[in-house]
Specification:
single chain, 196 residues, mainly alpha, two-stranded parallel ribbon, two-stranded antiparallel sheet, elongated, disordered C terminus
């Protein structure tokens, strides 16, 4: 939990000093709090009370607290829920930067914008009724969307690959592989995906 009366810096230092898995001397823990604040772009808010932070900065603080413990995997559930498009994009870009530095980042997200969707390395789309999942890449989804544009909506209007993935799931399913998405296939399934 966050303590509203503390400043962002006090909050980070508090957690740095109390996280049991961070076995280091006091000075190293405090230094770690400063490093995480800098990495998360929070240094300019160090003196701001937690209850005065914007929702986006509040979420970055929560991520920063988790980063204090030097995790090997960071799971972020509903990272962008309730955020405006610019804040959502900023939060996911921050997660992508962590992934680029070698941290495994798992993000649960609903209805991402096309720009946010493109930032992910791998996409796991859950099937309805808990009937498994499909694993692919945003690029493979974008290629499938391009193939399906001509047949899916009047005028070929299609704005978001993530929406298309969910809307056209049946058209994307490869019957030959027992229900896996036919997103990574090239020309061999193009005629099937484009048939009227």
């Amino acid at each position: 939990p966050l303590f509203d009366a503390l400043t962002l810096g006090e909050q980070l230092r508090y957690y740095a000093l109390t996280i049991p898995s961070l076995s280091a001397p006091k000075w190293a823990r405090l230094e770690r709090a400063d490093d995480v604040a800098r990495e998360a772009g929070l240094r300019s808010y160090y003196g701001t009370r937690v209850d005065k932070l914007s929702e986006g900065t509040h979420r970055r603080l929560l991520v920063a607290i988790r980063l204090l413990a030097l995790p090997s995997i960071l799971a972020l559930d509903e990272l962008t829920s309730g955020q405006d498009a610019a804040t959502a994009l900023s939060l996911v870009r921050g997660a992508a930067q962590l992934a680029e530095r070698g941290l495994t980042v798992l993000v649960v997200i609903h209805q991402p914008s096309a720009e946010v969707f493109a930032l992910f390395d791998t996409v796991v789309a859950l099937r309805p009724k808990g009937d498994g999942c499909d694993v692919t890449t945003p690029t493979a989804v974008a290629h499938a969307v391009e193939r399906l544009k001509r047949r899916s909506r009047p005028g070929g209007r299609l704005a978001n690959p993530a929406d298309m993935l969910l809307d056209a799931r049946d058209a994307l399913v490869d019957k030959a592989t027992g229900g896996a998405l036919a997103l990574d296939r090239s020309e061999e399934h193009t005629s099937e995906l484009q048939s009227p």
